[in-house]
């Protein structure tokens, strides 16, 4: 009964979404206030229905209702309750439901935080978001219904993929979806501006906090995915250039470009049509990412063949959204205008450089991800593109990007002078170059890549600090505290976001350059030495989990004869799916990780083991956290709240001034 | 400079940057494509010993042998028509099993032995990498005759995902 309620709620949500799309959009075009006024209540009602549907599915999982096909395929009564709850979004159908639910949550957020926006604008934004919702709801109801019954009911479920039974995976998809879907707000703002034909710096000021918040979630989602791959896959790597990872990375790159381009649009009224195009592309890539990952297109092109309906629907919807918005863009962009003029050397031109580099990076990832799919779908040949490709392309793109990161914030808007930039930054440049050359020598290994990494990190840190001093320290040390207090939050947002990139670069560079690893056969009480740590293998014991059996290795770590800790890496076999998984044990410190993973039994109670020493690897995930902090500070800048409140008064203010 | 010339300069600079980037990208792209073959298809590959490639098929039953160091493993990859010996040093993925599908990346040495640098097995017991399935099917259709070279697609899929 409850699954049927959920199914019914989905259908009702679709009905409301239709109303939410048609009435406000037509109302805005024709200027009918009562039709436009439907947008807000409709968005809220839709959210209520989707919440009911989501709770119904969650209930089916908690109650082990194996008469629901989706539950039977992805859950099992032996699984702990929290994994049963998170199994709701463990596969295709449920994650679509989560996606739409989050979309509607963003819509409700728009209804609350848009009180001061013009009515026709809000109506258009919510109408466009409703349209996206229609697409997803239709897709679910027609091809991927999570509430489909299984008759007769299964006695027991097939269990969630063991790799997904993990705390990191509980929050990874929702965070990623918050980011993906959050970009739909920026997208809808852009489409609404195109439809209305009015795009000014007020528009950019409305869009910025939404885009930044979406970007924060997206950053978090990508970071969690990387962290999960690091500890769960047992290979010690943190990024594999796997298509699934790329699918989340491409929207991130474009969203980052969008954040920067929005800054120009708000401050200088420039890059207008480019900003709109970026907003369209960022969300289109989010859509592509969602579909690539969850529809099974990626693991195998043949998934299209096994369920041609699904593949066809996806293609049609993607073409419809992307095609319609690009067509609208081509038709209306001229009206929006290009925006202000600027010199060859100016902050605008540097931000343009940032955008070009980020877009090229996104395009090269897209090429590497989609090319094998397209080639195979057309039957033209058979290839794969591996990490060497992405590394070869990415590093040359990131170097100029990071160099610009140091100069851009220092350069003046409209026109900057090169001699002035040189004067301001020469010490930062000199110190970072010298440190980058000397530090690796001190650390014992010098390669050009390590030096390059150090240079990028120090360059960002030093140029950011110099810039901060220029802004806050005008009155010398005595006035510094006051100067720091006077700086707007937006500036600090940038400062921390860039600092996060530097920390990330340090993590990548040091862990990449100075990690040590050993793969080795070990008998009980045998030891291996790595980076001054001694790892003694004390054999393997049996451990039982709620729904798995595990072999647990006991590894005692000591340094200079003193025992530090005992690490317990596991090899689990889950009861239903029988798939073995490796659970590495990691001793995570700020400056180094010790990482031990069990390989396989190689006879005579001996096992093969993987032992890693990874300095600064933690910073790879700390960097993004600092970036997110920057985003948070920027999004809470007072001027966004003031700006939205002031908008309706603009007319009055003009009158008062006149 | 007039605004018009300035715009032109900016556009030219962007085009130049994008052009360089595109050249870099395509060059890296060409250099890093890895082709996939089934055991029977290896015979038809030109300059097979000079290429980095992927070999996919079934791990032959009873063929897995481990050297005393506990890490070097020998096994045969077969499509039930042709069999290729593979050597790999390192820890095998969790799902590596005799009789199951596997994909190995590496080079074929002069002695006809495949020296793998990476071994992939997918995380699903019932899952047969589609390209392995296709290679098996093709080999059985060819009925033992030397099959034509068609190189089969390998989807890039992280080391263990």
Descriptive overview:
The complex is a heterodimer of chains A (658) and B (161). Chain A is α+β, with helices and mostly antiparallel strands and 658 residues long. Chain A is built from 22 helices and 11 strands. In chain A, 54% of the residues are buried. Residues 300-306 and 645-658 of chain A have low confidence and may be disordered. Chain B has 161 residues and is α+β, with helices and mostly antiparallel strands. Chain B has helices spanning 3-31, 130-142, and strands at 33-37, 53-59, 65-66, 72-78, 83-89, 101-108, 114-120. Chain B has a 5-stranded mixed β-barrel. The N and C termini of chain B lie far apart (55 Å). At the A-B interface, helix 10, helix 14, strand 1, helix 15 and strand 2 of A face helix 1 and strand 1 of B. Strand 1 (384-385) of chain A pairs antiparallel with strand 1 (33-37) of chain B, so a sheet runs across the interface.
Features:
heterodimer, A: 658 residues, alpha+beta, 6-stranded antiparallel beta sheet, 4-stranded antiparallel beta sheet, 12% strand, disordered C terminus, B: 161 residues, 5-stranded mixed β-barrel, 2 helices, elongated
Summarize the structure.
With 658 residues, chain A is α+β, with helices and mostly antiparallel strands. Chain A is built from 22 helices and 11 strands. The N and C termini of chain A lie far apart (66 Å).
Give the overall pLDDT of chain A as a whole number: 88
Summarize the main sheet of chain B.
5 strands, mixed, barrel
Give the beta-strand count of chain B. 7
Which structural class is indicated by helix and strand composition of chain A?
alpha+beta
Uncertain runs of chain B: 123-127, 144-161
User: What is the β-strand count of chain A?
Assistant: 11
Biggest interface, which chains? Answer: A-B, 66 and 50 residues
């Amino acid at each position: 009964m409850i699954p049927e309620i959920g199914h019914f709620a989905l259908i009702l949500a679709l009905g409301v979404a239709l109303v939410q799309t048609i009435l406000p959009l037509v109302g805005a075009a024709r200027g009918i206030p009562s039709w436009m006024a439907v947008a807000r209540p409709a968005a809220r009602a839709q959210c209520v229905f989707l919440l009911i549907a989501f709770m119904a599915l969650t209930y089916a999982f908690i109650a082990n209702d194996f008469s629901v096909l989706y539950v039977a395929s992805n859950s099992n009564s032996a699984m702990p309750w929290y994994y049963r709850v998170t199994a709701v979004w463990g596969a295709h159908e449920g994650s679509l439901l989560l996606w739409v639910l989050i979309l509607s949550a963003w819509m409700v957020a728009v209804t609350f935080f848009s009180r001061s926006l013009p009515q026709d604008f809000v109506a258009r934004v919510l109408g466009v978001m409703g349209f996206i919702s229609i697409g997803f709801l239709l897709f679910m109801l027609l091809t991927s219904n999570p509430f489909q019954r299984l008759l007769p009911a299964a006695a027991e479920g097939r269990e969630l993929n063991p790799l997904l039974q993990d705390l990191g995976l509980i929050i990874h998809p929702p965070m990623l979806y918050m980011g993906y879907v959050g970009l739909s707000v920026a997208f809808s703002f852009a489409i609404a501006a195109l439809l209305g034909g009015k795009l000014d710096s007020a528009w950019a000021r409305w869009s910025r906090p939404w885009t930044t918040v979406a970007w924060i979630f997206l950053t978090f989602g990508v970071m969690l995915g990387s962290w999960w791959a690091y500890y769960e896959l047992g290979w010690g790597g943190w990024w594999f250039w796997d298509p699934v990872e790329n699918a989340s990375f491409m929207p991130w790159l474009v969203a980052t470009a969008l954040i920067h381009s929005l800054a120009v649009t708000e401050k200088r009224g420039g890059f207008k049509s480019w900003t709109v195009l970026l907003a369209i592309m960022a969300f289109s890539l989010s859509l592509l990412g969602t579909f690539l990952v969850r529809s099974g297109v990626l693991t195998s092109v043949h998934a299209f063949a096994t369920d041609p309906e699904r593949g066809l629907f996806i293609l049609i919807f993607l073409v419809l959204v992307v095609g319609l918005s690009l067509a609208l863009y081509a038709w209306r962009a001229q009206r929006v205008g290009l925006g202000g003029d600027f010199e060859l050397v100016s902050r605008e031109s540097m931000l343009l450089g940032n955008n070009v580099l980020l877009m090229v990076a996104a395009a090269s990832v897209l090429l590497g991800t989609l090319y094998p799919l397209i080639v195979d779908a057309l039957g033209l040949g058979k290839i794969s593109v591996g990490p060497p490709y992405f590394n070869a392309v990415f590093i040359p793109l990131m170097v100029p990007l990071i160099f610009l990161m140091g100069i851009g914030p220092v350069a003046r808007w409209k026109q900057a002078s090169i001699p002035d930039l040189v004067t301001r930054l020469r010490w930062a440049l000199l110190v970072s170059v010298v440190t980058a050359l000397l530090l690796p020598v001190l650390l014992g290994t010098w390669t050009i890549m390590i030096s390059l990494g150090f240079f990028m990190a120090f360059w960002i840190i030093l140029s950011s600090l110099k810039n901060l001093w220029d802004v806050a320290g005008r009155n010398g040390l005595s006035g510094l505290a006051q100067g720091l207090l006077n700086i707007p939050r937006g500036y600090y947002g940038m400062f921390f976001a860039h600092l996060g990139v530097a920390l990330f670069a340090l993590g990548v560079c040091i862990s990449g350059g100075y990690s040590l690893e050993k793969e080795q056969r070990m008998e009980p009480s045998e030891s291996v030495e790595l980076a001054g740590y001694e790892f003694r293998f004390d054999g393997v014991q049996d451990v039982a989990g709620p729904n798995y059996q595990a072999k647990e290795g006991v590894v005692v770590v000591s340094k200079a004869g003193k025992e530090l800790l005992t690490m317990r890496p596991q090899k689990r076999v889950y009861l239903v799916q029988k798939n073995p998984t490796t659970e590495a044990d990691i001793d995570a410190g700020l400056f180094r990780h010790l990482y031990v993973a069990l390989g396989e039994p190689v006879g005579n109670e001996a096992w093969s083991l993987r032992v890693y020493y990874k300095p600064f690897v933690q910073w790879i995930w700390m960097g993004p956290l600092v970036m997110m902090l920057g985003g948070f500070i920027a999004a809470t800048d007072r001027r966004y709240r003031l700006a939205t409140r002031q908008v309706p008064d603009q007319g009055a203010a003009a009158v008062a001034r006149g | 400079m007039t605004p018009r010339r300035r715009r032109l300069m900016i556009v030219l600079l962007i085009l130049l940057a994008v052009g360089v980037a595109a050249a870099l990208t395509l060059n890296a792209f060409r250099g890093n494509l890895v082709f996939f073959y089934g055991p029977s298809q290896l015979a038809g590959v030109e300059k097979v010993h000079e290429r980095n490639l992927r070999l996919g098929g079934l791990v032959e039953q009873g063929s897995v042998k481990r050297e005393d160091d506990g890490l070097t493993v020998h096994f045969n990859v077969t499509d039930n028509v042709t069999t290729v010996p593979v050597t790999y040093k390192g820890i095998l993925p969790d799902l590596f099993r005799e009789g199951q599908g596997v994909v190995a990346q590496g080079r074929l040495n002069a002695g006809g032995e495949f020296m793998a640098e990476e071994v992939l097995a997918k995380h699903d017991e019932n899952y047969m990498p589609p390209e392995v399935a296709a290679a098996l099917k093709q080999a059985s259709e060819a009925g033992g005759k030397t099959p034509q070279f068609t190189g089969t697609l390998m989807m890039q899929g992280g080391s263990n995902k």
